[in-house]
From TrEMBL:
Any Pfam family matching the protein: HET
Organism in which the protein naturally occurs: Lasiosphaeria miniovina
Domain of life: Eukaryota
Record-annotated Heterokaryon incompatibility domain positions: 43-114
PANTHER family, A to Z: ANKYRIN REPEAT DOMAIN-CONTAINING PROTEIN 39 HOMOLOG-RELATED, HET DOMAIN PROTEIN (AFU_ORTHOLOGUE AFUA_8G01020)
InterPro entries: HET, HetReg/Transcr_Mod
Name recorded for this polypeptide: Heterokaryon incompatibility protein-domain-containing protein
Amino acid sequence: MAPPLYTPLPTDAKDAEIRLLTVFPADGGDPASVVCCSIRSQSESLAVALAGVRAHNAPNDFTIWADAICINQSDLAEKSSQVALMSSIYSSAARVVGWLGEAAGESNYAIELIARIRG
């Protein structure tokens, strides 16, 4: 029998903890070359997102909180307690990156508009 994927986190708000993921630089220069995710159904989208973030952070490692990996999605008590912490997690972050998925159709126009609005 395989060991459990997750060590349980406390679900009491006063003992709140989160899991963080450290992503290391790619070997060989291709940011996507060594990104492998096998965490349930989010794996392909998450692997693409991590490769994209890695490309912007190369050659440095970085630490992130990605709910698809950092929360045990099968543990409803943990999931509920972690969702309650999201506001604190995001407001305490040095940088927040939202992954909307790969470009599709004319989505690049929306991103360009956002960039122009930001100035």
